[in-house]
Write a structure and sequence with these properties.
Layout (H helix, E strand, L loop, with lengths): L2 H8 L3 H9 L7 E2 L5 E2 L2 H15 L4 H12 L5 H35 L9 H17 L8
Antiparallel strand pairs: 1-2
Helix pairs in contact: 1-3, 3-4
């Protein structure tokens, strides 16, 4: 099958398939006499595997490791589980960050009048954060510790 057919069967866009080949995540497809990429059912299976792994948030490098484990008949399932546990920890960290962002924004929204006046607690907070960041980035004066 050609790249368009492999893309349709796997759910992975043709551009992504080319990218995966370029970075060595998947082996380059064989070529027809006319120079077109030719894919088989095994290739489609690998592409589906990658689509699912990427959908679960695994990075390209983590997918590389998962593929290596998938292809290794002597793998230890503990190695696969360790990768999945690290992914869950990353997700939990991201959730905590997002919850903190939501809390901050919810508080700022409550403090903003939201009317015709120009005063806005949201903009004041953003400006204050920016000013504090600039102050902390300034180099210390000579003699200051």
């Amino acid at each position: 099958m050609n790249i368009g057919q492999a893309a349709a069967r796997s759910g992975v866009p043709a551009k992504t398939i080319r990218y995966y080949e370029e970075i060595g995540l998947i082996a380059p497809a064989e070529r027809s006499d006319g120079g077109y990429r030719v894919y088989g059912d095994r290739d489609v299976g690998v592409l589906r595997f990658l689509k699912r792994a990427r959908g679960l948030g695994f990075s390209v490098e983590e997918c590389r490791g998962l593929l290596a484990l998938y292809r290794d008949a002597h793998r230890a399932s503990a190695d696969v589980q360790a990768l999945a546990r690290r992914r869950v920890a990353d997700i939990e960290h991201k959730i905590a960050e997002l919850q903190a962002m939501r809390g901050t924004l919810t508080d700022l929204i409550a403090r903003c009048h939201g009317d015709e006046r120009p005063e806005c607690a949201i903009l004041d907070d953003l400006a204050g954060q920016a000013a504090r960041a600039e102050e902390s980035a300034e180099p210390a004066e000579a003699g200051e510790v």
